[in-house]
User: Fold these one by one.
Assistant:
Number 1:
Amino acid sequence: MGKYYYFPILKTRDAELKGIDRLDSEVKDCILPIFELTRSRRTKNNNEGDIWKRIDQIKDAVGVRPFALDVTQLPTLSNAQTAQLLSSNDNFSSWVNFIREVKGRGLNVIPTIHFDPDDLNSSKEEIVNLLKLSEFLLFRVDVRDSDVIDILKKLERVCDFSRLIVLLDAGFQSLEETPSGNFKTIYDEAINELNLSKKRPKAIICALSTFPAYVLGNGYGREDAHDKFLIGENITNKALGKEIFHGDYAAIHPNIQEGGGGWVPRIDFTNEDNFYYYRYRREEGGYVEAAKKIIASPHYCEIDNIRTWADEEIKLASRGIPNGRNPGHWIAVRVNLFVTKQFIRLRKSSGFSL
Amino acid sequence: MAIIRQRRFIEPALDDQTSDIQQIYGIATDKHITTCPFDVKGYIESQGIKVISEDMGSEISGYIEFRINHWVIAVNRYQNPRRQRFTLAHEYAHFLYDRETIQRDGKIVDVLLFRSDESNEIEKRANQFAGELLMPTTDFLNAVENGMKDFQQLADKFNVSVAAIRYRAFKLKLINAY
């Protein structure tokens, strides 16, 4: 088994999965995606929004490589199936049985623990059963939760930490409130608690996103057509030090809402410190104009040693032949480029093996 | 997120679960919910049902779903807001009349509203309820008698689509064909 350096949290929407699917295998081999399972799109022939369609897409994207699996709690991306997977009935048996079936289909899944702090017996039984299916488990906790220390103490009572990857998730953090982009202190208390535990977890991942729902706004872009803003994720990661592994939301706003009414065609790119956006209305040239401007930008440079689908898409669009004219396609491009750049940045770190 | 604090199933306010339009309007008034045009989203949410708008195939208007411990009604976010209002009322009718079926099957998804044949009794009843809720018979007839005969004017008054007005006018035998 190789080492894993980067831990992006991704909802299983088409755009995110496409961005991951198109990654170069060198990148895929060294990241551990944490998929947050969402329903598929409801259509006449798929009116329940079947989650197994998403599992098939994950399999197509990652193959036999390991990935962690959680379940969304966002109402607009949920359905009756995802709600069932979160049920604590019979010691979370729906979740355990689902993971067993996912494993049975040949996927190398690391399950998330569904933990009810008010029902430790259920969680204990669930953990025992999940550990029969996977050598490691993921424990994802919101560090903004005022009970986080109490939750970690309770977890220690029912779980062997050595087989645990702990994800301390800070969700969305706004650059408007913290213009420096350094959110290290959010994690301090939880990291101290984990360091005090009898047996340290296999790995501690700290994740957050500063990527906004709208690129214009205080702390973010000031210009309508193009501007830049900080990548708080990277600033925080550097401040946290080498012992902590890096997670983020792969340049997607954590509480993203689907679709919407009017939208301005926009393409984004990233370097180590900043996000850059270029947005032009259709009558101003749309995606083609955005791509042309990106190619001409002194801040943009193609990745030269890893085949990067996103760079190819931008190049094609700049020549007037974009492969997609909808936001979903260009979100996939952003994910693909951001994840590749994060891999390049983080592969210099120590990483860990599974 | 891995932390699950199980919400116990809370049956939406049982005392309020009436399909009687007059009673519904009385409850809405007591709760300071707008009745003209009827605030259907506000009323449904006041019943403890979660209302969401969702990206779904264009052939689907909406659905009602039971998710372990709570009810969800969803509308197609790309459809006209006035059409969405009718869909909400239609799905709420399913909650009132077809709850047991939904709890057994998990959901009812509505592919098309205003079906011309209306062969399905469940859908027919839901459409009828939605029409009556958003365009009560007395109010509708009064509006027509007071000279409001243009479909668009009526649609504006009740904040529904012209298609819904035509459907209602047909059901009230004001026009011969829909």
Number 2:
Amino acid sequence: MRDLIYLTVILPLLGFLINGIFGSKIKNEKLIGIIGSGVVGISFLIALGAFFETLALPLEQRQKIVSLFSWMVVGKLNVSFAFQVDQLSLVMALVVTGVGFIIHVYSIGYMHGDKGYWRFFSYMNLFIFAMMNLILADNFVLLFLGWEGVGLCSYLLIGFWYDRKFEKSTVAEASKKAFIVNRVGDFGFLLGMFLIFMTFGSLNFNEVFSRAVSFNVPAYVYGFIAIFLFIGATGKSAQIPLFVWLPDAMAGPTPVSALIHAATMVTAGVYMVARTSIIYASAPQIMMVIAIIGALTAFFAATIGIVQNDIKKVLAYSTVSQLGYMFLAMGVGAFSAGIFHVMTHAFFKALLFLAAGSVIHAMHEEQDIQKFGGLKKYMPRTHITFLIAALAISGIPPLSGFFSKDEILWFSFANSGLFLWIIGAGTAMMTAFYMFRLYILTFDGKERFGKDKHPHESPAVITIPLIVLAVLSVIGGFVGIPEVFSGEHGNQFHNWLAPIFKDADRKLAHFNLYSHSTEILLMVLSVVFAVSAIWFARYVYLKKPSIASDTAKRFKGLYNLLWNKYFVDEVYDAVIINPIVKTSKSFLWQIADNKIIDGVVNGTAKLIDIFSVNIRKLQNGVAQFYALVMVLGIVAAFFWIILSL
Amino acid sequence: MIITIEYYLILSAFMFLVGVTGVLINRNAIVVFMSIELMLNSANLTLVTFSSFLGNSIGQLFVFFVMTVAAAEAAVGLAIIIAIFRNKLTVNIDEINILKW
Amino acid sequence: MENSLLLTYLILTPFIGSFLILFFKKGQEHLIRYTALAISTIAFIISVIIYFQFDSANAGFQFIDKFHWIKGLNIHYHVGIDGMSLLLVLLTTFLTPLTLVSSWSSIESKVKEFTFFFLMLEVGMLGVFISLDLFLFYVFWEAMLIPMYFIIGIWGGKERIYAAVKFFIYTMFGSLLMLVALIWLAVYAIGPLGYFTTNLIELYAVSPQIPIDIQTWMFIAFAFSFAIKVPVFPLHTWLPDAHVQAPTAGSVILAGVLLKMGTYGLLRFNLPLFPEVSVAAAPYISILAIIGIIYGALVSMVQTDIKKLVAYSSVSHLGFVVLGIFAMTQESIQGAIIQMVNHGLSTGALFLLVGIIYERTHTREISDYGGIAKLVPVFAFALMFASLSSVGLPGLNGFIGEFLILLGSFKSPVLGSWWFTVFAASGVIFAAVYLLWMYQRVVYGEVTNPKLNGLKDMNNREIFVLFPIFIFIVWIGIYPSTFLKVSDKSTAKVVKQMYNPEKINPVQMGLIQSTK
């Protein structure tokens, strides 16, 4: 089955082509939906088969490269369309195809009636194609193809309803912002790739990583490579400073937000750091930078999420925040913990978005939570699944979120000390708070919507995916039960991925200084924080809503700052974008090009013109004048001859 | 007083200069032509002078050529002036400046 | 050596064909058009035959034809191709029939003359790429100016005369300098060789021995002429006018092929004839190239006329090619060559698309558009596809060229610093900005201009013209070896002529071997 891994890439491409070329002619929505979801489903089955096959093999045989054909062979560069099946790529493949399949099925119901139904599924398939390229690539260039490919699909899907308005601007503007900000990150990624090629003479993972261990390369080179690649990751995975596109990405349909901006594309940066772990391990200062940026992003995004009123916006900032956690994990050297959180986050975040979509549809495209309330009696299944997801993301045991988040918090304490743990725990508290604020304002309490809205439960094609994801959110964490509980079994997930990170772990040489009791103490603390935050949210929003509005009034400045997301977009506009556009227009174009450079060209012509106009006055038509000139010339020649004799 | 060759040559040069000045200064085209004839005749005088003082007749022979050319050129030139006069009703050279930029 | 006459047939086909066209009478437009299409397709088929018979393992010139021309001056009709000229010849013969077909609806008057000039232009272009004799090269170089001048000047837009004259005189000014250098070079050869020669292959052996200060002047003279053609900042101002005023077919062929003649010249003449000077001048020219990349992109961003936007984007893209050439590593030169082909395809496609929409609305101002995605979905898709190719999306052709160029420049020992690549790479951000912003204002959003209602989508002929270009865009993006392998050996040879790659250390950044 591992040999067939390339099908997981090719089949979605086929789905894209079939739905793209013939989609407008196929009038049957179900057929389009079946083709679109089917290819992803089959890909999932193949990935699953490959997984079981790998599970049965001994450690040394677990990596396999399946090469399709050679891509670019120039000088020292030799990259192919080749896929690497190993423990890490299989985890990602299962998440992408599995959650992807669930979301595709959901979309069959969600996008029902949309004129661009076939376009939607073809773009979604193209996305899966690009994402699979990204995670299965055996070299940096193919990874980059997937990397930019998902950026393209994100652009196409965010801008799916391209003629609509979105907040103060348009949907098209939001999708363009996503692509451009991503491209800024890609610029960094490219530089990282070039530096890798120059240092190690290759861009294939196996060659680069083995040379990273054996070559004697100065530390600053690793530092530069690491930071360049990380810039790419901040773009793709929405960290500070390039996170600004993700909230605007909510302009796209909800399944897009679930798939791309929660479960898969945004985790590409995390995957990339995990894959290149040996390089990061060789640049410990950059790892600290990553950890700090991750922690800060997590914290600040959570603070913004507390005050948002659009259900998707809250979830968007929550995603940015959770991604911060994943980078925090990477930064402290807990690579498998980060990937673990990728997986569990995919489950509950996709679920949150899909459930939100269910609510939005039921409320006739209303997204403002201030107009919700009390929906739990109208939408029981959506309600229960949402609640499960909210509990999972808040880190309540024994749901999956608890295991993954706690592992990250534990490793940030154990490997880096108290400071990062405090930020992480504080963010966890805020996460629980805003999540339950969202839950209560939507499903609990008084009904705040008008008589014109008749909310009802969504059809099975929508609720069944919700239920599946809810089950996964509950049991998904059990593969990663930490040692402290599972004893000699160890952390299964960690052990599965350990061979991938073995070189990096060896270089980082973390010692386990703390005892199990410290670990359990911290675990208990974080659960206590989460529970108290949930209790506080219930208290404020169910019992005394006035606390919320009073606090908002009292801390008006702070509230404004948070509500306007720290004015980051405005700052970027004023400092970077507007100056560049204005300078280009008024100076570069109108002055430099039109007046100066072209002025020289036209000026030269004008000069010659003036010269000629004056010279031609010699031809005045009077014959005597010519005769005079002739005589003068003869006299001059005569004197010259006399003088030179 | 013995009349040596210099006298003739200086006379000839003087006539030539008068002719050149006449060409350059006069406004009337016919006078210009007369000055041109004067220039040609000064050349003739020089040729005859040398022929006489050097004792061979080549100079005098050449004078015939010059005279013939002068006659032909005068005929053509006067014909052109008449043609121009028919169009512009003037023989003032300053006004015959159509062939300019 | 035997003369394989294939290249001569290749050039003769449009040459004789253009005279055939002159025999048609007014009113036989469709006959003229079909004949021209047939002639240019035959030329394409011949070039494909040449491709299949080409030996990729041979780094030298193949299919050489050599006939005496001006015996007294030792000037021959000497033609031949190697890997890179083959790719450019293919590009020329590929684009010409497509461009002719695209002009069927836009050129209605004086069709016979237009077709004649166009085929003559093809002769000139092909001649430039295959000449191995400097004098012959110069003849063809000048020969392609005249048809282009007429095409812009007669069938162009409102300011066509100004644009045509500017184009002609600007380019000719450069070429005259080249003529001086050419003659000087040929005369100089009398010293070592004993006779005046304009044979390029012989001159390759002679010219590196010329004293450096004279070499520098010759280099500047040649480079000036090519730099005007490419165009390199700041000699680019003829380009926006020429492109905007030319008819669609003219713009496509101008961007698609004529601009490549400049970069081809740099690669074929400047680098191998004057290697030491090239290496010394490389950082300065690369700076100009990088300024071109960024400046071209920024000015393109703020244009209000779509065609001018695409014109300035050409300046930006060709900046990459010049950077690739002067970085002088195998990766970057291969990238430059493939990017020449890519630019011809993607910018050619963009100009074709602009022409298609212009024919319907007779306006190129972006503000007159908006929301046409719903009205013309096929066009919207085609425009997106061409834009993505231009932006350099991996999987499409643009990425291969840009990636190889940037990769090669990063480690270039001739440039000596990463900073060149850092600035050049920022061009990828700006490319996305100007193209996507244009796309958004033209295609997305609401239909704001009521005159746009009833816009017709692309008809079959237009799809037929774009389809082959799109196929190659994908082909080069996914499987570029078909094209890269052709120029591989000749590129390695050029690099070796410049410096010995073994001897010079790559930019010191830790390329130290294993200690184990």
